[in-house]
UniProtKB/TrEMBL annotation:
GO terms for biological process: DNA replication, synthesis of primer. The lineage of its organism: Bacteria, Pseudomonadati, Pseudomonadota, Betaproteobacteria, Burkholderiales. One of its GO terms (cellular component) is cytoplasm. Belongs to the DnaG primase family. It comes from the Bacteria. Binds 1 zinc ion per monomer. Residues 258-340 form the Toprim domain. This is DNA primase. Keywords: DNA replication, DNA-binding, DNA-directed RNA polymerase, Magnesium, Metal-binding, Nucleotidyltransferase, Primosome, Transcription, Transferase, Zinc, Zinc-finger. It comes from Limnohabitans planktonicus II-D5. One of its GO terms (molecular function) is zinc ion binding. A zinc finger (CHC2-type) spans 38-62. Monomer. Interacts with DnaB. It is an enzyme of class 2 (transferase). Its EC number is 2.7.7.101.
Length: 699
């Protein structure tokens, strides 16, 4: 969107930079200018000056300067467009949008009106929750038990949602107002249209955007109820993958501390603010996304991810690494803090004190070290196979880094661990990246017309033994025409084990003159060419290995805990609909733990893969039918072994492709290392095949 420069000048002439800055900084008149403590760095003596005549701010300490637009971009983390729109709204001006059609402008205006209405509803509910907290002793006792003061509760706007099913009806006389459902405050039962409050008997944490507007809530149950944490659903004003809890409250502390501390939950943020670390923020029940990281770097050049030391914390850190890598430039600092398994940030500070926690932050693991640690998972670097595995796992992480000195230094370190020359490793990864492009799954093609399908079928039937290369999916019987053996006898074995007989059983591989000869045909000719069947439309595809893996994970979600990082990456990289489903499952597991199929089915409503998931579950009669109870999950040990075998087979398929490519390159002499690469891939595939066979034997 291009905004005319004339409009920018007119806008700046109508706003007063003193008023804009004064909303965030306490200013005092000092001669011709106004002075205050700089919001961009910690200081005790005011060196921050705002000039009403020049409409300009300048800090003599850190050098930050600019106009009203620049201040909002630097201090509030807004983009240029957002800052212009914010100032325009304050002055009653309309940002010109010549590039939009009247219809687009009308839709944008309607969307803006809807967002304003939703924000008003959420603000009103937040005020009601705060008033309710004041008169609810057991909620107050809970917060006091967590060490929170009334002052910190007021700063974060904490409240309490009563136990009743329709408590909000006393706040909103029109309880059937669609805005209550759209804002996520009220749940509507689609079957009988009954309505009830989403949040009941919970400590309420209002979630604010960078402007301070309430866009959603997080609710923490009091006691042992489930789920422990409950967030507002996605709405037109609330997107969990882009918002960070506590960022609005932490803005000034970020500048004074010089870094942002990213934690796992909103209780961590509030407790740390109580204990002297007001620069903490948290993701909202989701893994850290690139959008989160990009937003953080609007406020600071240093990010420290703090996670619990347990398995869930390690998984969260691994996802944060993926999100942070694209923004790890040479001038930014990204670290990972892992506390002992028995501690979270709150408990660690209370037991060991602020100084000890600050020292832990200072000694946090740099991104470069964590990348190498993540890539080295399950790699025996004393063997060629282990080093090859490290190369395979490190490449996608390294390629996410932006070009710069850090990327080159990491390449050198990884090359030493893999025992290759730096140039050789870079060349190898370049070739593998090109190979990935060639083997990347193509987008689903449109269903062919009957005429096209019949023509293709006739062409495929015209030449001898040119059967489509079909590999039966896991759990399927062979589907070759006429029952041919999957592995024909080698040249010279004319009759197999059965001589000339038993052709239909697959024992005879004698080449026929006419592959369409029909046994027992008594017509005038010895041979008969069958007519190709008429195409009647697409048939239901057989269950694939990815289908079965999805079914196992949907019916026993706790299996996520048993998977390695390589398994997670492989599953999430599957083409749609499987990959998006696995990625969604991982985020749900991180947010709510292991859920049953009924709960998952309810949570995934509206997702693109929901229908596919129900179909996969129904294939083995594990789905829930109306009026029936939820089927029990399969035995965990059997399910774990079955899933391990499926993952091994998926990896074996991939290794086969890479082996074929390596052999081709070796035969042409284009790559002198191709033969060695083929040996490593072949050995890895043999190991996986042996593991799959061992699991089958145990079963």
């Amino acid at each position: 969107m291009a905004i005319p420069q004339s409009f920018i000048q007119e806008l700046l002439s109508r706003v007063d930079v003193v008023d804009i800055v004064g909303k965030y900084v306490q200013l005092k008149k000092g001669g011709a200018n106004f002075m205050g403590l700089c919001p961009f760095h910690g200081e005790k003596s005011p060196s921050f000056s705002v000039s009403p005549t020049k409409q300009f701010f300048h800090c003599f300490g850190c050098g930050k300067n600019g106009n009203a637009i620049g201040f909002l971009m630097e201090h509030a983390g807004m983009t240029f467009i957002e800052a212009v729109k914010d100032l325009a709204q304050q002055t009653g001006m309309v940002v010109p949008e010549e590039q939009q059609s009247p219809e687009d402008r009308a839709r944008a205006a309607a969307a803006k009106a809807k967002q304003d209405s939703l924000s008003d509803v959420l603000e009103k509910a937040g005020e009601a929750y705060r008033e309710q907290l004041k008169i609810t002793p057991h909620a107050i006792d809970y917060l006091k038990g967590r060490g929170l003061s009334g002052q910190i509760a007021k700063r974060f706007g904490l409240g309490y949602a009563p136990e009743g099913w329709r408590s909000l009806a006393s706040i909103f006389p029109k309880y059937d107002d669609p805005l209550l459902a759209e804002s996520g405050l009220v749940i509507v039962n689609e079957e009988d249209d009954k309505r009830y409050d989403r949040f009941r008997d919970r400590i309420m944490f209002p979630i604010r955007n960078i402007k301070g507007e309430c866009i959603g809530f997080g609710g923490r149950v009091i006691g042992s109820g489930t789920p422990k944490y409950l967030n507002s659903p996605e709405t037109p004003v609330f997107h969990k993958g882009r918002e960070l809890y506590g960022l609005y409250e932490a803005r000034e502390a970020l500048h004074s501390a010089g870094y942002v501390l990213v934690t796992e939950g909103y209780m961590d943020v509030v407790a740390l603010a109580q204990l002297g670390f007001a620069n903490a923020v948290a993701t909202l029940g989701t893994a850290c996304t690139p959008d989160h990281v990009q937003k953080l770097f609007r406020f600071t050049d240093s990010v420290v991810f703090s996670f619990d030391g347990d398995a869930a914390g390690r998984r969260a850190a691994r996802k944060a690494l993926d999100g942070a890598l694209p923004y790890a430039t040479d001038v930014r600092s990204i670290k990972f803090l892992f506390l002992p398994a028995e501690h979270d940030p709150d408990s660690y500070v209370r037991e060991f004190g602020q100084d000890a926690f600050a020292e832990q932050i200072k000694q946090a693991m740099p991104l470069s070290r964590f990348l190498i640690e993540a890539a080295s998972a399950d790699c025996d670097l004393q063997t060629a196979e282990g080093r090859a595995r490290l190369s395979s796992q490190a490449r996608p992480l390294w390629q996410l880094l932006p070009d710069g000195a850090l990327k080159q230094q990491l390449l050198s370190e990884l090359a030493q661990l893999i025992q290759l020359e730096t140039a050789g490793l870079e060349k190898l990864w370049g070739q593998q990246a090109a190979s990935d492009q060639r083997f990347a799954p193509a987008a689903r093609s449109a269903t062919p017309s009957p005429q096209q399908a019949n023509a293709a079928f006739s062409q495929a039937s015209a030449s001898r033994d040119e059967y489509h290369h079909y590999e039966p999916q896991y759990g399927e019987p062979p589907a070759w025409p006429g029952g041919y053996a999957q592995n024909p006898a080698p040249a010279g074995n004319y009759g197999g084990q059965s001589g000339y007989g038993n052709a239909g059983a697959g024992g005879n591989n004698w080449p026929r003159k006419n592959p369409n000869w029909t046994p027992g045909f008594k017509g005038n000719s010895r041979f008969k060419r069958d007519q190709p069947p008429v195409y009647t439309g697409p048939r239901t595809p057989p269950a694939s290995r990815a289908d079965h893996a999805a079914r196992l994970l949907l019916s026993n979600m706790a299996l996520w805990e048993t998977l390695a990082g390589e398994d997670h990456a492989m599953l999430c990289a599957q083409p749609a609909p499987h990959g998006p489903l696995f990625a969604w499952l991982e985020s749900q597991f991180h947010e709510q733990g292991a859920l049953g199929w009924s709960a998952l089915q309810a949570e995934m409503q509206g997702q693109a893969f929901a229908d596919d998931a129900r179909r996969w579950m129904a294939q083995d009669n594990l789905g829930v039918t109306p009026g029936s109870e939820e089927a029990p999950p399969p035995d965990p040990q059997e399910a774990r072994q079955e899933l391990r075998r499926l993952l091994n087979m998926l990896m074996i398929d991939r290794l086969k492709q890479l082996e074929t490519e390596a052999l081709t390159q070796a035969s042409t002499g284009q790559d002198p290392e191709a033969q060695q690469r083929w040996r490593s891939l072949h050995e890895r595939r043999k190991e996986l095949m042996a593991a799959a066979a061992a699991i089958t034997t145990v079963q």
